[in-house]
Amino acid sequence: MLEIFKHLPENENTENNFTLRLQFEGESEPSLLEVSSLFYELTLVHDFSLLLTKKEYFNYNFSQFFYYRNGRPIKEAHKIRALSINKNSPLDLTLIISTLGGLLVLLQIIEKSSTIMLNREKIKEEIKKLKLENSTLERESELRNLELDNLIKNEEEHKTLLNLIRRIDKVKFKIKELEVKKRK
To answer: Phi, psi (5° rounding) for residue 22?
Structure first.
């Protein structure tokens, strides 16, 4: 278990959740399979982020079962939620993310993928803004250690990360806009 996470709040209630709004560019009439694939890939990236950053999941062993529908032991309170879905062109999706660590890692994975059309600097600014809004002197080093490269502890986690990036790159939707807010 990584020491840096022992002081992070548990964020079990909705008062500490974040929203992530993503606007995509893609076909005006995508297949249902393409839409559901996008949702599933985002779920996998989110769950991967939680498994790396939430201490109650630190003992999870990554394997091929990670990709199964029920292959990840994510509690109901931690699952990614859809706040709104607007299928009009462009597709607009607002998600609820339960933890800061999960959100920061998710954003870093999106940044590494080629699914983004927006300026990568915009994502970096969102990450920086989140860290500033949620930092105190005692948490600054913990937030710095939420860098994706510092979280990968073994070969299976590294392989899973690379596979997730490849999978999300194959999705036909490209992120056009991204906005993060703390839920009130």
So the answer is: -120, 130
